[in-house]
Specification:
360 residues, homodimer, alpha/beta, 11 strands
């Protein structure tokens, strides 16, 4: 897909490439979300909207999407939510997800957003944009609410086996992302470990600890943290391998869902509880909103900016994701990552070979 | 410590050995807890209570502990809550925790309960009771509430690096424990893994999956589960390594604490919310109780029954822990573990070497 193609207006800075077909609801959520997001973004913002043109245009009419700021790019090919990543890579070319990501490589857009199949988005993004040399797969970030803000938690699902170098890379990327997304000048960074003194962590974790502490990487590294620090706000960025991160994230999401469901039951148990719930409703609603994590997460480590929005997102969630993509695209986080990544080889050498006393 | 020593009444079946000095509060919590527990246990139940005799007797008088059913064993040596396990092993002999566990080996008691330093309790229990041949360290179990009951989740902290054999042992022990603790005739078992198809788990997890599925071990094995299954009740027993389990447990505990704190804030925001909270209070209290996991967990894999109660326990929690110890001691779970453990070597051989297609 050539850059020109009569879309010169779209080569202006803030162009977001959007997968109209991704997620559980496709255009019926994505198109209204685009309308909401456009209203909140600067007048120069434009969207590329990839998917079934008829469906998109019909939704666009319904929700009054200003089509002068949107370039609809038709394709009738869609990656299914349950498609295997390997299959998506083989037969995904020309699909709405593929075209959404390809617009980044072609320089047509500065960020891509999809609520489609996570594994497929990883695989396709990696194939089209390629990873930065040092990294094998994109890392997935979770933003966890705590009393005073957000903890950036990664990797929550991409890289199951992580050596020390991988963990340090996550620290570098997570720190730059946290600054860009939350405006914290010098985010603090912690490495996830277990509590008992007797058996402080894997060898990989102890080695990463040593590199972060001694290796001359420019991070505000605070040492080991534990699982409950994720919602305590002890540090801004918490780093772990993709296995542990994925399990911890899902465990916390499950615990929160369970608690909300039990709370709902408790508040409808008898007339007193029901009346109480009615009176407390505005406060309870604010409470629920505070507990909801941001709907989108970037895939870190790609040569380009791709955000994954969760599949069940509604229009408000998807609009938030588009705005998050715009914020990130306008920040300097890619170059900050670049700067610290260049220090990594020296840092690994400096920290030297594993010693018996790696723990804090 | 010889079995006789004038304590013949204590060689009756249900004798529980209790560390009076463990936990954040020591005798001021443990002694009243013993009084509560004795009231609920059969008349034949007796306690050995290890610790500072003067402090114990003064508390006993205050809370009217029936001293004819309790043998107070004096020691003025106590393991500190922050003592390193290695140090506890070296200088722990004769401490209240040490004597509590030693009573099991001496055949004076059928179960031991302590709210003391977890690492020290592991180390001392392992030293005194020794592990079953196949196991290296005791596994720690968490009991997670879900809508219809309890999920048994292990290992949550002892064994950081686990090979497939270790994971299968956890499955065997967790299943027998779940049956004994919750009266489920044939508990279902799942192995914790990550969600993305593309990268289903570590090699160890895939190998354990193969052994559990094909190896002729007598378990109701259901395959892989994910982090959110812990609070869904998808299976009765969820198995993972001690690193992942510890992080997931603490992450969930942290998330629950954070939610309760935010909920408290939400319900005191304005007069409507406060009035609502007052009306809903009885229901909210039941909700909180449902969310609280059992206060004690067994250390599995020892030649003997040792329960760790959480350090911050109040008298009600500690009394519950003593009753849980009594229930377990009267169940057949030790022999059920024995039976399946004997099948393990053959099962490992049967499942054969790793194949490329280990995942479900």
């Amino acid at each position: 897909m050539p850059i020109a193609r009569g879309t010169n207006a779209l080569t202006q800075p803030l162009v977001i490439s959007v997968d109209a077909m991704g997620g559980d609801h496709g255009p019926s959520v994505v198109v209204p979300a685009c309308a909401q997001a456009l209203a909140a973004l600067p007048a120069s913002a434009r969207f590329l909207l990839h998917g079934d043109e008829a469906a998109v245009r019909s939704e666009a009419q319904r929700c009054r999407l200003p089509l002068d700021r949107v370039d609809v790019r038709h394709t009738d090919k869609v990656i299914a939510m349950d498609e295997k990543p390997a299959q998506a890579m083989r037969r995904g070319k020309g699909s709405s997800m593929w075209n959404t990501v390809e617009a980044i490589r072609e320089g047509e857009a500065v960020a891509a957003v999809s609520a489609g199949n996570t594994g497929a988005l990883w695989a396709i993004s990696k194939l089209i944009l390629r990873m930065r040399a040092e990294l094998e797969r994109p890392a997935l970030v979770a933003s966890m609410p705590h009393a005073k803000g957000i903890t950036t938690f990664l990797d929550v699902g991409a890289n199951v086996d992580c050596d020390a170098e991988r963990l340090v890379e996550f620290a570098i990327m997570g720190e730059a992302y946290h600054r860009a997304a939350h405006g914290v000048a010098r985010p603090t960074v912690g490495l996830l470990n277990v509590g008992s003194e007797e058996m402080k962590g894997h060898e990989e974790v102890r080695e990463a600890h040593r590199v972060l502490r001694e290796g001359g990487i420019d991070l505000n590294y605070k040492g080991f943290v534990e699982g409950d620090d994720i919602t305590k706000g002890s540090v801004d960025v918490i780093v772990t391998d993709g296995f542990t991160g994925n399990v911890a994230l899902k465990a916390m999401e499950g615990a929160a869902r369970f608690m909300f469901s039990e709370l709902r039951d408790a508040l409808s148990r008898d007339w007193m509880a029901r009346l109480g719930a009615v009176l407390a409703r505005p406060s309870l609603r604010k409470f629920r909103d505070r507990m909801s994590p941001p709907p989108a997460a970037p895939l870190l480590g790609l040569n380009g900016l791709v955000l994954k929005c969760h599949g069940g997102a509604d229009a408000r969630d998807f609009a938030k994701s588009i705005r998050a993509a715009a914020d990130l695209a306008q920040s300097g986080f890619a170059s900050e990552i670049e700067r610290n990544m260049r220090r990594l080889p020296a840092a690994l050498a400096d920290a030297g070979p594993a010693s018996a006393d790696g723990a804090a």
